[in-house]
User: What shape does this take?
Amino acid sequence: MTERLVVDIAGETMHLLADRALFWPARGRLLIADLHLGKGDVFRAAGIALPSGGTAHDLARLDRLIDATGARELWILGDLLHGATHHARWREGWDRWRSAHAGLRIAALRGNHDRHRDDAALDIDALGESVAQDGLLLRHEPLPDPAHHVIAGHLHPTLRLPGIRRPLPGFWLRPGHTVLPAFSAFTGGQVVEPGAGDRFAACAGDHVEIVSFGFD
Assistant: This one.
């Protein structure tokens, strides 16, 4: 068990980090999916009582990951936001955090929750629906592509493991595509059933552990 696992994805060395992020050393790039900034604010605006501080907690986790990896770029594979951008509390936190990382390139693919995203106001690069690079296709939804290995998010994959009460989030490593866990701590998860040849890197606190599934 370790805080990171080094794996090969379509010929590229990648680090699977216990705090639900993927680091691509060759490009100095930290990849996360499903940040869902402001989700708590959106729920509270709808009259659902939830504690505050979720966005600040997630941004503090990003601070630690950027320091630990030395990442020069942060790419978000969709669902940067959870809803409209006008909720002041999370925007103030984001603006302070962005100013503290002025030298970091931040880019985001568009996800299904990003309909109200204002890229210019957030000081990020908009990448559209997908980006193909080095034999990989980065996008939000993990749809197969015949020419590339797909790296995506969207599913919030979790796995039930023996002796552990709650399903654990993690990286679902499948032939042809890799699905990242939801980065935001304030998200639900979808329990997946890995098939033959799949692997699942479960994130459990400060360590990540990989589980392999045999071939039929």
User: Anything to note?
Assistant: The first helix runs from residue 39 to 45. The radius of gyration is 17 Å.
